[in-house]
Amino acid sequence: SLDSIFFPLALQSHSFRLCLLDFLISSEFDLKPSFACVVSLFILQHNNSISFNTKSWSSSLALTQKTSKPGAPHNVRLYSIASTRYGDFFDGKTASLCVRRAVYYDPETGKEDPSKNGVCSNFLCDSKPGDKIQITGPSGKVMLLPENDPNVTHIMIATGTGVAPYRGYLRRMFMENLPNYKFGGLDWLFVGVANTDILLYDDEFNKYLKDHPDNFRFDKALSREQKNKKGGKMYVQDKIEEYSQRTNHVMT
């Protein structure tokens, strides 16, 4: 049961005044050919036009116009931010997004139906470096690391692009090396995807594993490459079940 071993993250509620800002897509990461058309990783340049006054945003709002109704109000879509307040270049001028392109395939014909594709994800994935987009946020509750106790245990569970906010947390724990925060606990990340070649931020996470073996564990569930103990596909819940005794021990 996930309920018996999932370690809840600290949730804190904050009020923010929403403001609409223009962001520039300044660059794109190099993606493996097998999933470059499915997932896009963006760095959004805001040049200090917005204050990241939390340790890590849990979500942002990306706005795009309804293509079927030109001039109609913008739709709102939420995307997790995959960086901390300092951004990927540690200058406080960028924020990163990890976006999966939402496409629809007709079950009868097996062909893609562009009229039913996700509006905002395709808008973002089709954008090019230098394009200007509008973003506002954050929205709702914000997840913060409990920095009053940097030696606690975190168990993080994600599938696909759901790893985005955890990437921000891990950068703060293991990359930023700030004088006022030194992580000394254990972070255990479980990630579930179909194949090895669609693992996101895999090189980055493996470097943490190499550099911080006492503070980081990284386990992957590859549904099309691994089998669970019953001989079926390996999903993230199956991988967690493999370590149920350890995860329960960690939390007691």
From TrEMBL:
CC cofactor: FAD
Q: Does NADP appear among the keywords?
A: yes
Identify the keywords attached in UniProt to this record, alphabetized: FAD, Flavoprotein, NADP, Oxidoreductase
Q: Where is the Oxidoreductase FAD/NAD(P)-binding domain?
A: 156-245
The record ties this protein, via InterPro entries, to: Flavoprot_Pyr_Nucl_cyt_Rdtase, FNR, FNR_nucleotide-bd, OxRdtase_FAD/NAD-bd, Riboflavin_synthase-like_b-brl
PANTHER family assigned = PTHR43314
Q: What is this protein called?
A: Oxidoreductase FAD/NAD(P)-binding domain-containing protein
Which species is this record about? Brassica napus (Rape)
